[in-house]
Amino acid sequence: MTVQQIALLVTPPALLISTQITFRWAGRTLGPRWGYLCGFLSYWGIWCLAVPWRLLGKQGIAALFVVGTHLIGQPMWVGAVLLSLPLLLGYGYAFPRVVRGADLTLLVASAALAAINAVLEELLWRGAYIATFHDSWLLGVAYPAVGFGIWHLSPQVIHPNPAPGGKLSFVAVSVVIGLMWGWVAFAASSILMTSIVHLLFDFSGLGARVYLRYSEGKPSPAT
Question: Where are the beta strands (DSSP E) in the chain?
Fold first, then answer.
């Protein structure tokens, strides 16, 4: 087993421990609004960007966004369904609840946050794993999907999921979505489509509400 493979195997538990500490400290020190942002900035910068950059390099990262012969893998209908289902959840359940009263500032800020979170999370949780474990569905898709879901416990230290089932339901949904997107990324050998769908899904929650102090309720943590 290579050093790169070992590094990615220890990433999920190490990430969970470090982000739990960061969100707890930032929440107590900076308050819920800016502590939440501080926690995500640390997560994005250290784990979602620095780790893949160190393991894959600039060219390896660029290759993850190149579309091969199969845009969403084969059979195509499976990939299309797996990409569509999370969007039906986001725009059928979350979006109608949060869009009331939204203005242009909220929409633009939420789109920017969604783009940053989506691309960086796909780079780590899908891209780095499919590039490193390209011959193993278990380690290239299933293992990071579980890690992707469990990591969502950390931002909920500050903003717990208000939906039925609380923290655990959010983790469970994230694991399932991670498996769906992981299948597509693994089959297509690319994270281009999953990054686009991830962006759209995150936007459906209008995540900038937590920073702009909108009154529609607590935001769901970014996925």
Answer: none
The whole-angstrom distance between residue 21's C-alpha and the CA centroid of its chain comes to 19
| 21 half-sphere exposure, CB direction, 13 A CA radius | 5
Rounded CA separation 141/17 (Å): 22
Model confidence over 171-218: pLDDT tens digits?
Answer: 999 999 999 999 999 999 999 999 999 999 999 999 999 888 654 445
Q: Note if the pTM is more than 0.85.
A: yes
The CA distance from 79 to 43, in Å, is: 28
- What are the sequence ranges of the domains in the chain? 3-212
Phi-psi map region of 101: left, alpha, beta (phi>0 left; psi -120 to 50 alpha): left
**How many Å apart are CA 92 and CA 126, to the nearest integer?**
25
CA-to-CA distance for 70 and 189, rounded, in angstroms?
8
List the one residue out of 86, 101, 117, 119 whose CA is nearest residue 209.
Answer: 101
Q: How far is CA 59 from CA 63, 67, 126, 164, in A?
A: 6, 15, 16, 43
The C-alpha atoms of residue 169 and residue 85 are separated, in whole angstroms, by 17
